UniProtKB/TrEMBL annotation:
Gene name linked to the record: LOC113213588
A GO cellular component entry from the record: nucleus
Domain of life: Eukaryota
Biological role stated in the UniProt entry: May be involved in transcriptional regulation.
Name of the protein this chain belongs to: Gastrula zinc finger protein XlCGF8.2DB-like
Subcellular location: Nucleus
């Protein structure tokens, strides 16, 4: 394959217009839009778009950590996670938004951020059709339909559907009042 061919990205996603040099990478990318996750963990049933992601995930069950940070000795089960972690020491933020120049240490965070500019919402609720720009927000929203409350207060056992509402609730037990009244 010639160098010029490598630089070309002729395979374009019909959903978000992202371009790829190989058709295989476009097919894998399309899973982000379809939600297809064909690789399933036999231990916890979590699903993944890539087989390599599943292999890395399996180490969370075995406890195997092959990669160690030379700066703080923290261990990681995946080399890519170690590379991302190293940026916490160096402060490196190699991924820059072309719109507002904000920089990110992770490419995935840049991609999520870009949706704030485009308004793109890839994740749709199958119950009410509300759309979200982040998968996490869709998962959080789905709890409004299921009434699932996975976050429980360890003090009074009150349950919450969102982690941040639990964090705010915990302040009622500690007496913390982070906001000051302006009318005092």
């Amino acid at each position: 394959m010639m160098v010029q061919e490598k630089l070309q990205k002729p395979h374009e996603c019909a959903v978000c217009n992202r371009k790829f040099s190989q058709r295989r990478n476009l097919r894998i990318h399309l899973r982000t839009h379809s939600g297809e996750r064909p690789f399933e963990c036999a231990v916890c049933n979590k699903k993944f778009t890539l087989s390599s992601s599943l292999r890395g995930h399996l180490r969370t069950h075995t406890g195997e950590k092959l990669f160690e940070c030379t700066m703080c000795n923290k261990e990681f089960s995946r080399s890519c996670t170690l590379r991302e972690h190293l940026r916490t020491h160096t402060g490196e933020k190699p991924f820059e938004c072309a719109v507002c120049n904000r920089k990110f240490s992770k490419n995935s965070n840049l991609r999520k951020h870009l949706r704030t500019h485009t308004g793109e919402k890839l994740f749709k609720c199958t119950v009410c059709n509300k759309e979200f720009s982040r998968r996490y927000n869709l998962r959080e929203h789905l709890r409004t339909h299921t009434e699932e409350k996975p976050f429980e207060c360890t003090v009074c056992n009150k349950e919450f559907s969102r982690s941040w509402t639990l964090r705010e609730h915990l302040k009622t037990h500690t007496g913390e009042k982070p906001f000051e009244c302006a009318n005092v």
